[in-house]
Amino acid sequence: MQSAHLQANAPQPFAATKVLDGFISNLEPVIEGEDVKTVYDVTLNYFQDALHRHWPGDTIGILTYNMQADVEYILNRLDLEGKADAIHRVGIDKNCTKKAAKVPPFVPAAVSLRRLFSECLDLRAVPKKSLIRGLIPCTSDPCDKRFLEVLCSKEGHSAYEEYILKQGKGFTALLKLVTSCKPTAAVMIEHLPRLMPRPYSIANAHREDGSRTIRFIISHNASCPGITTTYLRGLDTGALVYFYFRQSSPFTFKDSELRNNLIMVGTGTGVSPYLAFLDLRAEALAKGHTVGKAELIAGFRYRDRSYLCQEEILGYLETGALDACYEAFSRDENSRFKYVQDRIKERKAQIVENLRNPHGLLFVCGDSKVLLPQITATIVELLAESSDDQERESSKAFIDQLKKDGKYREDVWL
């Protein structure tokens, strides 16, 4: 049995439960190939006595680990390989003049450097100027020092944007630019943020029979691999994973809403939470309950090699848990509909009717910077019968009110 994650007993963001022990019972690629992200279907089983009631739309938080290559790079760079596994006490230096200085709550009082760098500190965090300023005394080469001084100065804001923000350079990448910089562990503890747990949408409905199974979908971008997806895809069946249930958001879909009419919009792995919606509806139908109408608008790159859970969706269509599925394929040359926005426009009458229906609900899952604003803008255009500015503003206010009332629900990816 591996040692518990160092953050297992620390307070977790948006936690609804304590950290639980999960075991990988399934981890298989369901999409892979050229020009597509590899997508994995993951199942966790957990055995704690307390059974948490989760809803479709809920999420879990996975306690993650930094990539081993990054950890080894830091240990090597700072000449700490020989001390990496020794236990060190963490406290405030008696000569510290900083007021109210304290050890971050996610850093144990006694810890090895290897585990500190692996489990506590975000080695790929975008460096703030305060961190860059803290690196200057740890740098020996005058040119490197000057570079860091410019980056953290007011006059060097454009350089900071160019080298750090635009290029997305994290802490380890910055160290590779200033080769004479050797920060101490103390500097890193003081300035690096916490390695945060990663949230994932639950893709299966809760079972009243007491089964403790959580399913979720992850995607791996080979050109820009994520920390948690890299960690998870390297696990074997039976591997221990630390996770917790996060507090419910307005995006959830509950038993009391089974009679409501649903329109669900998502792209790529943004379709995964709707698998839990459909799972709940299928279970209700199997018990003889009445459910409302459900339509899915789903976007993928290719029909033949990136259509997530296609057979599963077809199965829900056959059983009636899903009434209709409208797809868009952005990279297929012969595709009539490239984006979910095209499908939304095609379904204009039905969507507007659903929004105005007191029993209608619209769910949208995707990136908050691109997809969600685009979909909101598309629906505002649908509601505005003309290009009159006053009517458009009225439509925007109507959408805002729908969101406040819980009829238009967004699952926001940051």
Automatic annotation (TrEMBL):
Pfam families: FAD_binding_1, NAD_binding_1. The keyword Oxidoreductase applies. InterPro entries: CysJ-like_FAD-binding, FAD-bd_FR_type, Flavoprot_Pyr_Nucl_cyt_Rdtase, FNR_nucleotide-bd, NADPH_Cyt_P450_Rdtase_alpha, OxRdtase_FAD/NAD-bd, Riboflavin_synthase-like_b-brl. Its cofactor is FAD. GO terms for biological process: homocysteine metabolic process; methionine biosynthetic process. GO terms for molecular function: [methionine synthase] reductase (NADPH) activity; flavin adenine dinucleotide binding; FMN binding. Gene3D superfamilies: NADPH-cytochrome p450 Reductase, Chain A, domain 3 (1.20.990.10), Nucleotide-binding domain of ferredoxin-NADP reductase (FNR) module (3.40.50.80), Translation factors (2.40.30.10). Keywords: FAD, Flavoprotein, Oxidoreductase. Transmembrane segments: none annotated. It is an enzyme of class 1 (oxidoreductase). PANTHER family: METHIONINE SYNTHASE REDUCTASE, NITRIC OXIDE SYNTHASE-RELATED. This is Methionine synthase reductase. It comes from Anopheles sinensis (Mosquito).
